[in-house]
């Protein structure tokens, strides 16, 4: 991959990139940028009628993905699974029987959400899928009439719950979402929801905790209802719609996304607030780093997905909307930036050891690499190598070892605080 040619240090107030100053630039297709995405904008509003029409078409275009389980469950086998001995005691057997009755009411006796394919036990992720299916079920009811002639509505619910459970689990995971349909889903949800993305993620974490503790179908239903009420009907529609569209390969999603209700508005929000060309971002995002606790989204994007503006001609290169420049390696960074200056050294706020986890663009960029006085740099490094139980909560881990388990944003905030505290003699 060639040396990344991205952005200069920090945009000055007079260099703001309004719509009139943006212009497209042809750059290498393999060049990437690590950029922060703001969420300081409102969600797209999707009406019920347009949502139902969109989902019905999406579902009917992919019937093979809604085929019955490859292990058909006959009524006798279903009853055996639902009433057999399950790990954890009687309450789990009763929960399984209640699940069986739910499937019967849906018109599909058996394992309608395909929970027993991995064995006759309801695990925490199975209970989470039940709660999610109950949460999104009302939104899907209007789709049933259009798909009933070709597909079982229960299979539609099963597909949606499986897909959304997988994608949401990736969004809240401590590791980045890598390239593929899951990354495309994350970018689309950002463009559609803006500030309400955090409410969705927080609601999902609560749903996960509530469903894990549930010992009855009633408790799962209540958990699903609380989730639906917390994020609201509009976010439920967007979650279901985007999740259904994001099934399969990213290339297929590229043809579906522009046809989704509200996509033009979502794309406009992405361009206005994040300088991101939505279609290019959906197609080619390399990595998404979401820190729910800190409320931040950072992505590794191809340069053709980012709207750029020139600053001071060609000498300073091409400036990205966030004003920073990222590089393939630390050597490339130093080649461009030059020495840190007399008596100073370059310092990575999020350490270089995280390159394999977050990617080189996330580590070797002008937001993350800063100049520090040599003495301060040595003291900060010494802090990271030391054992500080009051910081880490452990007598055995160094600060560096403890910190390496944290999210990107948590590491960055700690790194900034460490520089400040060491400089002031607090640590």
- Pick out the low-confidence regions: 1-29, 63-89, 309-319
Shape: globular
Oligomer: single chain
Number of helices: 18
Rg (C-alpha, Å): 25 Å
Q: State the separation between the terminal residues, measured CA to CA.
A: 41 Å
The SSE string, one letter per element, is EHHHHHEHHHHHHEEEEHEHHEHHHH
Mean pLDDT: 79
Strand content: 5-15%
Task: Give the tally of β-strands.
Answer: 8
Helix content: 40-55%
Q: Tell me the number of structural domains.
A: 2
Strand order of the largest sheet: 1-4-3-2
Largest sheet: 4 strands, antiparallel
Classify the secondary structure makeup into a structural class: alpha+beta
What does this structure look like?
The relative contact order is 0.14. The protein is of the alpha+beta class. Residues 1-29, 63-89 and 309-319 have low confidence and may be disordered. It folds into two domains: 48-284, no CATH class; 328-427, no CATH class. The strands form three sheets. A four-stranded antiparallel β-sheet has the order 1-4-3-2, with helices on both faces. Strands 5-6 form a two-stranded antiparallel sheet. A two-stranded antiparallel ribbon has the order 7-8. It has helices spanning 48-60, 75-83, 90-105, 124-147, 153-171, 181-193, 196-213, 217-245, 250-256, 263-274, 278-284, 330-337, 355-358, 360-363, 374-385, 389-392, 399-403, 408-423; strands spanning 32-37, 177-178, 287-291, 296-302, 309-310, 318-319, 344-348, 369-373. Helices cover 52% and strands 8% of the residues. It starts with 31 loop residues before the first strand and ends with a helix. The chain is globular and about 75 Å long.
